[in-house]
């Protein structure tokens, strides 16, 4: 009997898969204590980023079927 592989629910909420199979994530550090951070640093933290290719195998294991 085969078992269903469960995906990590916390990762499902944080990561999106692009059309080419790469993983997109948001950058950390832009939630609070923003007054002490420079404008350029806040701009750099905004927007999405692609997960490094060294972590893609780990992502595939944590998100089966995505």
Fold and architecture overview:
The protein is an alpha+beta fold and 66 residues long. The chain has a domain at 39-66. The protein is 30% helix and 14% strand. It has helices spanning 9-14, 39-45, 56-62, and strands at 16-17, 23-26, 48-50. Strands 1-2-3 form a 3-stranded antiparallel sheet. The longest helix is centred in the middle third of the chain and has 7 residues, at 39-45. The radius of gyration is 15 Å and the shape is elongated. The two termini are 22 Å apart.
CA-based shape: elongated
Order of helices and strands: HEEHEH
Give the DSSP E fraction (strand runs of 2 or more residues).
Answer: 5-15%
Low-confidence stretches: none
Sheet with the most strands? Answer: 3 strands, antiparallel
Strand order of the largest sheet: 1-2-3
Overall average pLDDT:
93
Tell me the distance between the termini.
22 Å
* Percent helix: 25-40%
Number of strands: 3
Helix/strand structural class: alpha+beta
Taking Cα atoms only, what radius of gyration do you get, to the nearest Å?
Answer: 15 Å
So how many helices?
Answer: 3
Keywords:
66 residues, alpha+beta, three-stranded antiparallel beta sheet, 30% helix, 14% strand, elongated
Topology:
Layout: H1 9-14, E1 16-17, E2 23-26, H2 39-45, E3 48-50, H3 56-62
Antiparallel strand pairs: 1-2, 2-3
Summarize this entry quickly.
The protein has three helices and three strands; from the N terminus they run αββαβα. By secondary structure, it is an alpha+beta fold.
């Amino acid at each position: 009997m085969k078992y269903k592989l469960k995906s990590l629910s916390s990762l499902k909420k944080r990561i999106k898969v692009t059309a080419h199979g790469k993983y997109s994530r948001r950058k950390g550090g832009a939630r609070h204590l923003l007054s002490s951070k420079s404008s350029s640093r806040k701009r750099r933290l905004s927007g999405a980023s692609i997960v490094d290719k060294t972590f893609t195998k780990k992502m595939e294991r944590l998100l089966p079927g995505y």
